[in-house]
Amino acid sequence: MTRTIEWLAIFGICIVGPIASSAQTINVGTTSGLAGWTVPVSITVAPGTSTPVTAQNQISYDPTKISIATLANGSPDCTVSPSTGKSAGFAFLPAGCAGNLCNKVRAIVWNATNTTIPSGTLYTCKVKIGASVSPGTYALTNAAVQLVNGTATIVGTTGSSGSVTVVP
Q1: What is the DSSP string of the chain?
Q2: What is the largest CA-CA distance in the chain?
Q3: What is this structure's pTM?
Q4: CB count, 10 Å around CB of 103?
Q5: Cβ distance 91 to 75 under 8 Å?
Q6: Which tens digits make up the pLDDT trace of 143-156?
Q7: Phi, psi (5° rounding) for residue 70?
Q8: For a surface tag, which of 25, 29, 100, 108 has the fewest beta carbons within 10 Å of its beta carbon?
Q9: What is the C-alpha to C-alpha distance for residues 100 and 62, in angstroms, rounded to an integer?
């Protein structure tokens, strides 16, 4: 039985449908830098034998230590990889947050032609390291991970979290 895709407000996409059995991955990378730096982190996808056309995940972080950089328009400084041939939407969470009140970013990668997402970098975000943050490793926690194929079937998806290491 096929169900439909339901679109919710502010990228709150809920994919409802049958779940395929083979596991695929969306992984948040690791990066490092000095206090006060802005550093890139890549989010990668390994679709395995599935043919996903849409991907989504959330990255949580401690905004008192690190944060996803913000563009002039107030949106997350994240960019979909050109190799995907896809569009993307990025939003800070919780909805309506600003500054240190934001502790997550949601990403959705899609296009209208249902072309398959290739293996490799899905998107990249810039991470700001606080100016007075002590050396250490700070989590970029990956959650709400989904890959969806062209028939709106969720393919079994897992993911790993990443981190930012602040060096002395």
Answers
A1: ----EE--STT--EE-S-EEEEEEEEEE-EEEE-TT-EEEEEEEEE-TT--EEEEEEEEE--TTTEEE-B-TTSSB-EEE-GGGT-EEEEEEESTT--GGG--EEEEEEE-TT-PPPPSEEEEEEEEEEPTTPPSEEEEEEEEEEEEEETTSPEEEEEEE-EEEEEP-
A2: 56
A3: 0.85
A4: 18
A5: yes
A6: 999 999 988 899 88
A7: -115, 135
A8: 100
A9: 9
Measure the CA angle with vertex 122, ends 125 and 57; round to 5°.
Answer: 75
Q: Which domains does the chain have, with CATH numbers?
A: 25-144 (2.60.40.680)
Q: What are the tokens at 91?
A: 């939003």
Q: Which residue has the tokens 């009140």?
A: 101
Instruction: Give, in order, the Cα–Cα distances in Å from 143 to each of 34, 73, 140, 157.
Output: 26, 25, 10, 11
The 10s digit of each residue's pLDDT in 88-140 is 999 999 999 988 899 999 999 998 788 899 999 999 999 999 999 999 999 99
Give CA angle at 137 (99, 26), nearest 5°.
80
